[in-house]
Amino acid sequence: MRLEDFDNDEDKVIQDRLKRKTWNEIRTNDSWAIFKIMAEFVNGYESMGRIGPCVSIFGSARTKPEDANYLLAEKIAYKISKAGYGVITGGGPGIMEAGNKGAHLGGGTSVGLNIELPFEQHFNPYIDSDKNLNFDYFFVRKVMFVKYSQGFVVMPGGFGTMDELFEAITLIQTKKIAKFPIILVGTSFWSGLIDWIKTVLVEKACTVSAQDLNLFKIVDTEDEVVDVLNAFYKKYDLSPNF
């Protein structure tokens, strides 16, 4: 079928991606993509390397300002900033906005790692003006989160939040990065997933080791988040990882 034969934009995008390309087209597109990827890494490293110790806050872009999780994320970010850490978020609305807002109100560093998406994403007004970075590639953006964070605070979210959570757990589990705190906020939200991991992955399928469950903690309040961070860094006496 021809591109114009499809009725909706999604089908047209799929058809365009599957369209047979010449070797010259493939080589040219891929070559230029490499330079674009390199530029995003260089810009990210140069910008983030000047920022002090930070904690990343993840969560849904769809969370409304009146939602309890939004308000909790704001309190968590405020307390984190008062404890001496900066806050890194994905830079968008929802939980990300709450994280940047809490850091801003607490007088701390407020970083936003934005990415262009067909829906939901637009940068929020609480990011420090010199710390608002934009990315086209998810994998470059995730490198910045991991390389320049001293901890992850994971609020309730969707597929993107789960992706970031399991990326961090996998990198620590496989010792590709040093261990740092991964804090899941909201027992009622996370308990079903954790129970499934225990009963299916650990006990039934044996695809995860029981000790891997120690790679993260579940809490419910802003004070517990700060306590976990402070206890971890007091125990290991770790310095910023850059």
Q: What does the overall shape look like? A: globular
Could you estimate the helical fraction of the residues in percent? 40-55%
CATH uppermost class: Alpha Beta
Taking the sheet with the most strands, its summary is:
7 strands, parallel
The CATH architecture would be: 3-Layer(aba) Sandwich
Mean pLDDT across all amino acids: 88
Radius of gyration: 20 Å
Biggest sheet, strands in spatial order? 4-3-2-1-5-6-7
Number of helices: 8
Q: What is the end-to-end distance?
A: 52 Å
Which stretches are low in confidence, meaning pLDDT under 50 for 5 or more residues running? none
How many domain regions? 1
Number of strands: 7
CATH overall fold name: Rossmann fold
Strand content: 5-15%
Order of helices and strands: HHEHEHEEHEHEHEH
- Summing up helix and strand content along with how strands pair, one would put the structural category as alpha/beta
Task: Give a brief outline of the structure.
This protein is of the alpha/beta class and about 240 residues long. The protein is about 50% helix and about 10% strand.
Please describe what this structure looks like:
Pfam families: Lysine_decarbox (PF03641). Keywords: Cytokinin biosynthesis, Hydrolase. The chain is α/β, with parallel strands linked by helices. The protein contains eight helices and seven strands, in the order ααβαβαββαβαβαβα. α7 (187-204) links the parallel β6 (182-185) and β7 (217-219). The longest helix is centred in the N-terminal third of the chain and has 26 residues, at 23-48. The termini are far apart.
